[in-house]
Amino acid sequence: MTADIWDAPLDDQPDTASPSEANERIVAASVMSRPELIDELAAEFDPADISHDQLRWVWHAVDEIRQTLTNGEIRWQAVDRQLQAWRASGYMPVPPLTLPQLAHLYEEAQPSYSAAAYYAQQVTEEAIRRRYLALQADMGIRGRSAAFDPDTDIGVVQDALDNLVRGDTANATKLVGDIIGGALERAVTPPTNENRIPTGFIDLDSLFTGGLAAGQMVVVGARPAMGKTTLGLGLARAAAIHNQIPTLFESLEMGEDELGNNILSAEARIPLHHIKQGIVTDADLSRAARFVPRITEAPLHISDSAHLTLPALRGKVRHLVRTAGLRLVVIDYLQLMQAPKAESRQAEVAKLSRGLKLLAKEFGITVVVLAQLNRGPEQRTEKKPLVSDLRESGAIEQDADIVILLHREDAYEKESPRAGEADFIVGKHRGGPTATITTAFQGHYAQFIDMAAS
Question: SS3 for 79-141, per residue?
Answer without folding.
Answer: HHHHHHHHHHHCCCCCCCCCHHHHHHHHHHHCCCHHHHHHHHHHHHHHHHHHHHHHHHHHHHH
